[in-house]
Amino acid sequence: MKKVFLFLLVLGALQGVSQEKKLALIVGNAAYVDGAALKNPIQDARAIDQALQLLGFETIIKENLSLSQLKRAIDDFGMRLHGYDVGLFYYAGHGIQLKGRNYLVPVDADLKIAQQIEYDCVAAERVLAFMESAKAKVNLMILDACRNNPFERSWTRSTDGGGLAFMNAPSGSLIAYATSPGSVASDGEGDHGLYTSALLKHIHTPNITVEQFFKRVRIEVEEKTEKTQTPWESTSLKGEFYFLKDTSKILYDSSRVVMAGNGSVSRGVAPSTLGRIKLLAEVPVQMGVGFDASLSHRFSLSLQAGVLRDPNSTLMMETFKAFGNDEEIVQMIEKSFKHGLVIEGGLNYNIGKSYVGVFYQQINLGSGESPASAYESQFNTDINLLAVKPGRPTLVEKSVNIQSNLSQVGILYGRRFALVNPKFEIDVEAGISKNIDSVTKVTSENREVDLFSQEVNQELDAWFARHAIIPSLMVALAFKINR
User: Fold this and answer.
1) CATH says 15-251 is which class?
2) Measured between alpha carbons, how far is residue 114 from residues 38, 99, 121, 126, 256 in Å?
3) pTM score > 0.90 for this model?
4) Which candidate in 87, 104, 440, 449 could, as Cys together with 460 as Cys, close a disulfide (CB 3.0–4.6 Å)?
């Protein structure tokens, strides 16, 4: 309860830091064709998205955009920016200059000659034009786009040089480059590009102006590259802008840590993703819905409920065959699984896009029909004269009810895959579970089958407790819920 209270205080404080309306468009392009793929832009874009959300920005994040998608994203951002006080555009990906103009390269660009750039790429001035038209008080453009040009090797004539060209910032704007004009920046060897790592490290530093912020970024990058890469800014800002100000109003929970850059950390609140709703399908038997709740940057709580489907899979039937030749018991279990429910809770540890977890689940099996009619009646009115086959009573009964509650524990490994829409993800999860307890009840309206019920109870409880180590594979569509 204490942590919840602190978290609510932090959210309220962050909302109270500034009443400015701030909108950001974040683009990460990495999946380029023709060997031009980049390692870090997607992770860079997602980390910047989370950082800006914590600072009160409304964010639009786009990944791996084609030419038409990149133009549409910029146009929609520019139209929406009207009425906002602060606009920010962040781009990570390939950037090229031609004739003194800078271009953002979409992932479907196939630039055989330099002359294609003007038509197959998007001019950076397109973003500036929309920002200027929206008349926001502060406009920020951050370009981590100065990687080596992978297309140039096939050109007979080069562009104006490596890196990006210098652009004059319109009134009220600041343009930040990963490196100085005409130079090339590093894509980075860690989880983020070198420049973006420095941005993430310093963006939550309180009470420094945006100019001071970029100065700290420049010092950081120069030190790490021995001055071979120098970030650069062009500015015509009229007032002072702070990413984070008035920290006296903010109560930090020091137990919460947000990862920033290549292993560095900054104290603050948890990541911006509150939870994920999942529609899941699990082999061999389960369909259901789940919810993941973020506990911290690394840990999440998972809850899910499902219904068991027809288990006529090779895996499940081989599991049932552990009862040997007792086909009646096998059929009874199979029918019970067709009427089963599952409740599961677990704790996951997140490692980038992957996670490992432990879980506990309760499975309720129930069926109103059984194969007990396969037995033949050989008894008189006196139950003590009930004839017995080797090891089992013989009877005729069509309404034997089976009810079993299974307790299981398990471990799992999962991986998340992003979709074009950043709100959605696909989860693929492999796990294995073990039955640790069973309470089985087999009943009938006829008292003559009591002996049979007791025997089945004992067999099922003993077998479920000893066996049923069942592997599973789950695929889920997850919808992210942001704070």
Assistant:
1) alpha beta
2) 20, 10, 11, 20, 49
3) no
4) 440
